[in-house]
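Inputs:
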Amino acid sequence: MPDKDCNLDGLCYNFGDAKGGSQVNTSRFLKACRGEPHDQVPVWFMRQAGRYQPSYRALRTRYTMLELARSPRLIADVTVEAVRMLDVDAAILFSDIMIPLDGLGIRYDIRENVGPIVESPLRRPADIHGMPPFQSDRLEFVYEGVALSVEKLAGVPLIGFAGAPFTLASYLVEGGPSRTYQETKALMWNHPGAFYALMERLCAMVVEHCANQVKAGAAAIQLFDSWVGALSQEDYRTLILPHMRKIFEALKPLGVPLIYFGIGTQHLIAEMARSGATVLGLDWRTALSQARGVVGPSIALMGNLDPQCLLAGPVAVQAGVTAILDAMARDDAYIFNLGHGVPKETDPTVLQKVAAWVHQYPKPG
Amino acid sequence: MPDKDCNLDGLCYNFGDAKGGSQVNTSRFLKACRGEPHDQVPVWFMRQAGRYQPSYRALRTRYTMLELARSPRLIADVTVEAVRMLDVDAAILFSDIMIPLDGLGIRYDIRENVGPIVESPLRRPADIHGMPPFQSDRLEFVYEGVALSVEKLAGVPLIGFAGAPFTLASYLVEGGPSRTYQETKALMWNHPGAFYALMERLCAMVVEHCANQVKAGAAAIQLFDSWVGALSQEDYRTLILPHMRKIFEALKPLGVPLIYFGIGTQHLIAEMARSGATVLGLDWRTALSQARGVVGPSIALMGNLDPQCLLAGPVAVQAGVTAILDAMARDDAYIFNLGHGVPKETDPTVLQKVAAWVHQYPKPG
C-alpha cells in the first residue's frame, strides 16, 4: 500500500506501508472480513489474551497490566501466546483502550476488578479545550509491540484496536466506569460545543493510533464502542455517528478491515452499519441472522456467543456454538466470536474446544 | 367486576371485586392505557416515591425501607405524598419487587446503594423443588396498603406491581444484583426443568399477588422485568415469553391495564408485545415512534425520557420532554414516563416542572 495522506478536519496523517504479506491477506479471517469465499468459519475471541490463561496470570504476578501493555516484548509474548494456545484465526494486540491517552498526557490507572480510573476527570469545557495535542511518539512501545507480534505470528493476521470516542469520553468525563454516564450525558447535552471538541480530539487520536498500528503491521482494526449502547438512537445518530463516519473515512485508505463493536447496541445496528465500518461486531442479544437482514449483504458480521455460555458447562456451550454456526456458517461475511470478552473464570480448554468446533463445522458451499 | 376463577396450570385464583369507581375509570391515565381519546397526555414517574423526596428521606431516618414497605399506613402515606407533590395522573404503590417473597418464606434484605440480597440463593434444582408454597396471607400488609392508598387517592388511579419472574429469579439465583447473570443463565441452560419450575412458582406468586392488589383497589398492574434485556431474543422467546403469556392471560379477567416494562429490551420489543400485556414500558434507547411501528396500534406505549436528563439541567430536560411529546402527544395510547426510575439526586422541582410541561403540551385532536 502506498503512503497516503488522509484528511480529517484539516489534520494530516502520513500512513506508511502496511506489512503483512500474502499469507495474511489470503487468511480465512481477512477473506471473511471482505466477504470472500473461504474454507472454514474463522474464529477469534475478544480478550483471548487475559486472566483466564494460567500463563497470563503467572506474568501478572511479576508485572502490572500497564507494565505488560507498555513493554513491546511482553505485548508480543502475550498477544502471540493466545493464538498458539487456542489455534484461532486472528491475534488481537494485547493493549488497553486507555493506552493511547498516554499520548495526550492524561494520567490514569487500571484497577483490578474496577477498571480504568482517570486521575483528573474532564468535567468542564475548559478541561477539554486545555487538552494538549496528541503525541503518538509517546506510544512507540505499542507500535513496536505490533511489529514484534506480527513477526512472531508468521502469517496469522493481527488486529490492532482503539476505543471509540464515546466510550473513551465516558471514562475521561466520569473518571472511571459508570452505570449511568450521568456526567458524560450532561456534558453532551449542556455543552455540545465542548463535547464536540472532545470527540474531535479523540477522533484524531484514534485515527492516528490505528494508522500507526497498521503501519507497524496490523492487518485489521477494531474500534470498541463498548458503552455507546447507553445512548438513544437520536443521540447516537446526531452526536456520535458523524464522528464515527469521519474515523472510518479517514482509515479507509489503509485498505484493512474496520471492525466496529458495541455492547447492548441492538437499537443502533442500522446506524452503526452506516458508519463506514466494514465489519460489525454484535453482542448475543440480537440474532445474527436478524442483524444480517437489517444491515444488508455488504457488511461482515462478527459474534456473538454469550460469554456466560463458557461458564455454564459443556452442554450449554456446545448448544450455543452450534446454534450460531447453523445460522451463520454459510455466510461468507461472518467471523465467529463471543458477544463480549472472555470471562476471567473461563476454563482455557473450553475455549480451545470452541475454536476446534468452529473449525470442524462443515461450511456449506 | 364479578368474582372470577382464573386458571394457571391448574392453580385457581379467586378474584374479588375491583374497586375504583367511575372517577378512576374515566381518568386520562386509564383512558390512555386503553387507547381512548382524552384531554391531556397522562404522566407518572417510575420510583416517584423515593429518596429524591425530602419527605421520604425524613421518613427513612426513622424507618428502614422494608419497615416502610411492611406498614400499611406508611405505604399509603408514601404512595399518596408523591402524587400530591408532583400532581401526576397515577400513583404507584410504594413497595418493592422482593416483598412478595415474604409469602414464600424467602429471607432477603434491601441494602442501601447495593440492592436486594437473598440470604440463601437458590443454586441447585433441589433448592427450587424444596420451595414452600406461596402464602399470600403473609402479605396482607401490602393489600391493606393498597386499600388505604386508594381511599386517600380519591379518584387518582393506583398502579399495583410485581417483579416479572426472570428478574425475580435473577435475584434468587445470584443472591443479589449481577452484571452477568452467570448463575441464572447456567441454571436456565443446564437445568431447564428446575428453571421452568422456578419460573412457574414465581408466575403463580406474581399472579396471586397482582390479583390481590387489584382486589384491594389497584386500577392497573405493572410487571417490572428490569433485567430480562440481558437475554438473547431466542432465550427470551423460548424460555421466558411462555411464562409471561400465562401471567397476562391469568390477569386478563381482572379487566385492568397490564403494563410490562424492561430496561435494554430494545431487541425484545416485538416479542414483549406478543405477551398479552396491554401497555409496554420502554427505556430511552428506542424512539417511541419507532416502537409504535414495531408493536402496531393495539398496545399502549409508556416512557421514555432518559432519567439522566433530570440531572443535566433545564435545557436538557426541556429538550428531552419536548422531543418525546412532539413525537407522541397525538397518540391516544401513550403515557409519559421516564425510561427508568427517578434518580435519587433529582431536584423535586424539576420533576414537578416535567409533569406540568406534559400537562400543558397541546394535545392534537
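Confidence is low (pLDDT under 50) at residues 1-20 of chain A. Flag for discussion at group meeting.
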